[in-house]
Amino acid sequence: MKTVALYHLKGGVGKTAAAVNLATLAARSGLPTLLWDLDPQGAASWTLRAEAPEAAKPKSLWTGGAPIGQWVQETAWPNLSLIPADLASRHLDTWLRKDGRDTLATLLEPLSESYSLCVLDCPPSLSHLADNIFAAADRVLVPTVPTHLSLRALKQVLDYFAEHDFPKAKLRGFWSLADRRRGLHRALIEQPPKAMPRPYKAVIPYASGVEKMGEHRAPIEDYASSHPAAEAYRLLWKELKADLKP
Ligand SMILES: Nc1ncnc2c1ncn2[C@@H]1O[C@H](COP(=O)(O)OP(=O)(O)OP(=O)(O)O)[C@@H](O)[C@H]1O
Ligand SMILES: [Mg+2]
Question: Where residue 139 falls among pLDDT bands split at 50, 70, 90?
Fold first, then answer.
């Protein structure tokens, strides 16, 4: 099983949109796929029409008291399973061991028997959870809006990787919420700055078609497959798939 995180220190940059679209495209291509919604906001879970079970006690999962299989739900999409978010997981950082980074990787281990790909939708923070994500993921995809503020936050992530000995080779950038009518967006896309780690070619456009995922509670491929944004997510998936090959 390969593990791919959608991560950025900055909020609202299209992490969840990319996580949902990539996971459903992978499942559609026949790969047994698991999406783990690690953000207590639960936007990915909601988009995929799932909720955490009422009796859920996420602390028992994170502290090793309950087997992870209990948390996995089927979705309406063939080949796609989900571990939904739970608001209680906002306390996650206090449950994770401060001195270790391997809790998430250990939890993921038994899932590799059932899944070929695990997509992690991550909350926007640099925390113990982020350390666990950076340790567990084979690739950390960073959706970056072509603006100076988004690039500054990206630089902070790169510095964090360097300071804490996470391999930079895991990081991949791609442009998100890109509006080619804006000069700055065009200039940055045409000439990606050095801070952009190994950028993918796919550029996700700013488009109301993507926002409508909330209305349809589905990936864009399901309701507007000829939309340029749907095409961009297909290219992103194609690049990621090639990049994951050994
Ligand atoms: N390409 C896009 N074009 C237009 N709107 C978009 C696009 N991608 C995402 N959005 C919208 O922008 C908002 C933020 O997107 P999303 O939830 O995917 O970002 P996020 O990085 O996961 O945010 P958070 O940090 O809060 O988890 C949502 O309302 C979403 O519908
Ligand atoms: Mg999100």
Answer: very high
Fold of the CATH domain 2-244: Rossmann fold (3.40.50)
- Of 203, 149, 148, residue with least CA distance to 173: 203
Mutate to test the pocket of ligand 1, among 24, 177, 233 (most ligand atoms within 8 A of CB): 177
pLDDT score recorded for residue 189:
95
Complete edge-to-edge strand list for the sheet that includes strand 2-6: 73-74, 80-83, 33-37, 117-121, 2-6, 139-144, 171-178, 203-205
Q: Quick check: CB of 140 below 6 Å from ligand 1?
A: no
Pick from 41, 89, 210 the residue to mutate for probing ligand 1's pocket: most ligand atoms within 8 Å of its CB. 210
Indicate the domain borders of the chain.
Answer: 2-244
Which pLDDT score, from 0 to 100, does residue 206 have?
Answer: 98
